[in-house]
Write a structure and sequence with these properties.
Blueprint (H helix, E strand, L loop, with lengths): L10 H6 L23 H4 L9 H9 L3 H28 L6 E3 H5 L5 H10 L1 E5 L4 H17 L6 E2 L6 E2 L5 H7 L2 H11 L10 E7 L5 E4 L11 E2 L5 H4 L47 E6 L10 E3 L3 H11 L2 E3 L10 H5 L4 E3 L15 E2 L10 H4 L1 E2 L8 E5 L4 E3 L9 E5 L3 E4 H16 L28 H6 L12 H15 L5
Parallel strand pairs: 1-2
Antiparallel strand pairs: 2-14, 3-4, 4-6, 5-17, 6-16, 7-12, 8-14, 8-16, 9-13, 9-15, 10-11
The structure holds fe (ii) ion.
Length: 501
């Protein structure tokens, strides 16, 4: 059983502590009320034209003639690669997505070729960490929690929720602190790298509270189109760090872009516009654990399975416009997509699919060369207890229709490492867990205070790995240099220092 004495402080006491208040402890309600607010397409928001400064931004990023020549060369190479890669994706379908066995992770027996595939595809299924019985038990417990609190529980859609605004149910606490899930996450996080002085501890996974879904057969409301989380225009606009994560795509060797370099992600500002439901932690792998047997066409996850290529295309696409529009070509798709029909355009203010304050959205209209209607690939069948993780730059979607017979149910549990900012968030998240308030990133105003059967410290699994995930035990550096040691020291300060929440 986990106990932490200092958590008996009142919120008023937390607020008065510390030279700099925890940025995530502000419990003022954010705008919005459910998952639809994060996406302009779900929220039905109109796409507005961006102001002139976005044209200036493009010119700032590509200042000289030489830079423009490089961009054009890269664009043409990326379009060429996409033709071949799209064809291969269409042919292979879900088979392209690798699977790992948890026992192989635990015993260090992962084939390097499969690991390379995980890095290239950007999505992976991990089987065997959680038993089917446990995962199905979690789902039943969540249904009970929803029923016991039906008058106050919120979700999307409002009249018949399938994506619940639950963050503190007992199954969520149990799953997030499940030792095998955390070991899986430590393994996947350490596939990333960072400069020696970068303040990050990749081998120390922490918890990030997110929602869950129990989606019914036939549902068409939760049709989440292709998107990438972590902001939209920020990828170009944040000149201190986020932009640097993609700078090689604008260099002569765009293929040297390293999607697994965490160095500049640590300080990246992914939420310049304080969007509703934006994620304020660095979350290298998004993920879920399944609570159902779900196949393609049953409301499952879809991904574009090539991270380097989709990222390169996304970044470059903002600088190019078609000479003739799709409608001018009639049905001639090849003519419209041909490299000759696309020209460098630094005058336009458009960043296709980017709406400030929202996630990056992509479609056949905004990003036609990805051929997303045909290339978004459903993950292969999963069973209860299977985990699926996808790289934070992966284009992903939820199948628009659920044609299966059973529910399609997951708890969203990403793999998140210790950084100083993440630890600050974790300290505030820990306080929300104790009070039952909603976590900072989410806008369900009332939270789960007073909910019957809410999770508590007793639901946290035994062991340091589990307790650290919830910020209940000090972190230890794993011998990865000064940057890691600094991250651990500062993280422990946020969590256990004299000014901690
Ligand atoms: Fe997403």
């Amino acid at each position: 059983m986990a106990t932490v004495k200092s958590f008996s402080h009142s919120r008023r006491e937390y607020a008065s502590a510390g030279p700099r208040p925890n940025r995530y402890s502000n419990q003022q309600a954010k705008p919005g009320s459910d998952i639809s607010d994060a996406f302009s397409s779900l929220a039905g928001a109109p796409i507005l034209e961006l102001p002139q400064r976005y044209s200036e931004l493009k010119k700032e990023l590509v200042p000289g003639l030489r830079d423009q020549e490089v961009l054009l060369k890269n664009w043409n190479e990326v379009l060429d690669c996409l033709k071949h890669t799209n064809a291969r994706i269409k042919e292979q379908g879900g088979k392209i997505i690798p699977r790992l066995l948890f026992s192989d992770i635990e015993n260090g027996r992962i084939d390097p070729d499969i690991l390379e595939q995980v890095r290239s595809v950007g999505t992976v299924i991990v089987k065997g960490a959680v038993t089917k019985e446990q995962a199905l038990g979690w789902k039943e417990s969540i249904k009970r929690y929803a029923a016991d609190n039906r008058d106050r529980a919120r979700g999307f859609p409002k009249d018949d929720p399938q994506v619940w605004e639950f963050y503190h149910s007992r199954p969520q606490v149990s799953a997030r602190t499940h030792p095998a899930i955390l070991k899986t996450q430590a393994f996947l996080l350490t596939q990333w790298r960072a400069d020696a002085d970068a303040e990050i501890s990749l081998g120390n996974p922490i918890s990030y509270f997110d929602r869950l879904r129990i989606r019914f057969p036939g549902d068409m409301t939760f049709a989440l189109g292709p998107h990438i989380d972590g902001g939209s225009v920020e990828r170009w606009e944040d000149n201190k760090a986020y932009r640097k994560c993609f700078s090689r795509i604008l260099s002569p060797n765009w293929k040297s872009h390293d999607a697994f370099d965490a160095t500049h992600r640590i300080e990246a500002k992914m939420d310049i516009y304080a969007g509703p439901s934006a994620c304020n932690v660095f979350r290298p792998w998004q993920g879920w654990v399944s609570m159902s047997s779900t196949s393609a066409n049953e409301g499952t996850l879809q991904v574009y399975p090539n991270t380097l290529l989709s990222t390169a295309y996304l970044i470059l696409r903002a600088f190019f416009s078609p000479i003739r529009t799709a409608s001018e070509f009639g049905g001639n798709k090849n003519g419209y997509l041909a490299a000759e029909n696309w020209a460098l355009d630094l005058e336009s203010t458009a960043f296709p699919g980017s709406v400030p304050g929202r996630a990056q959205e992509l479609s056949d209209e905004t990003h036609p060369h990805l051929e997303l209607t045909e290339t978004m690939t459903s993950v292969p069948p999963v069973d209860p207890g299977d985990q699926v993780y996808w790289h934070c730059d992966t284009i992903h979607a939820v199948e628009s229709q659920h044609r299966g017979k059973g529910d399609s149910s997951v708890m969203y549990i990403p793999a998140v490492p210790v950084t100083v900012n993440n630890a600050e968030y974790l300290a505030a998240q820990r306080a929300s867990f104790i009070t039952g308030y909603r976590p900072y990133d989410f806008s369900s105003v009332e939270g789960e205070i007073g909910f019957i059967g809410r999770g508590s410290l007793q639901d946290i699994n035994e062991g340091s790995l589990s307790r650290r995930a919830y910020g209940l035990e000090k972190f230890e550096a794993l011998g990865n240099g000064n940057g890691e040691a600094n991250a651990i020291e500062k993280a422990n300060e946020w969590l256990f220092g004299p000014h901690s929440l």
